[in-house]
Design a protein that fits this description.
Blueprint: H1 3-24, H2 27-32, H3 34-56, H4 62-75, H5 80-85, H6 88-106
Helix pairs in contact: 1-3, 1-6, 3-6, 4-6
């Protein structure tokens, strides 16, 4: 699986989810409803990740998997054991979520 395609997918879906969030919520919503919005972001990211791997017909190679695990560990307060046991779909979903968080941060919206 081509890493460039994976990165492009993460960026595209992160951008799309961010646009939808920004059109659906105002800045106060992100503070008041941060947990439910975070869950919504992850659920949508998970759906996109499932579709990605279904259409690709293959999963991550070991090198990419290790890199994404490191990325998730660096960005989220998650036990290392949990990340090491994550499947490729969950890893990709977390990477999309990171992209959304970064894009919201660029808009000066913090919700996590």
């Amino acid at each position: 699986m081509n890493k460039e395609n994976i990165e492009k997918f993460i960026c595209n879906k992160g951008e799309l989810i961010t646009k939808i969030l920004l059109s659906s919520y105002d800045s106060a919503d992100f503070e008041i409803n941060s947990e439910s919005i975070e869950k919504e972001v992850f659920d949508v990211s998970l759906s996109y990740a499932r579709i990605f791997f279904f259409e690709a017909g293959s999963f991550l190679d070991e090198e990419s998997r290790d890199e994404y695990k490191s990325h998730v560990l660096a960005r989220f307060n998650v036990e290392k054991k949990k990340v090491l046991k994550m499947n490729d779909i969950n890893l990709l979903a977390h990477c999309i979520k990171v992209e959304v968080i970064d894009r919201l941060d660029d808009q000066d919206i913090l919700f996590l």
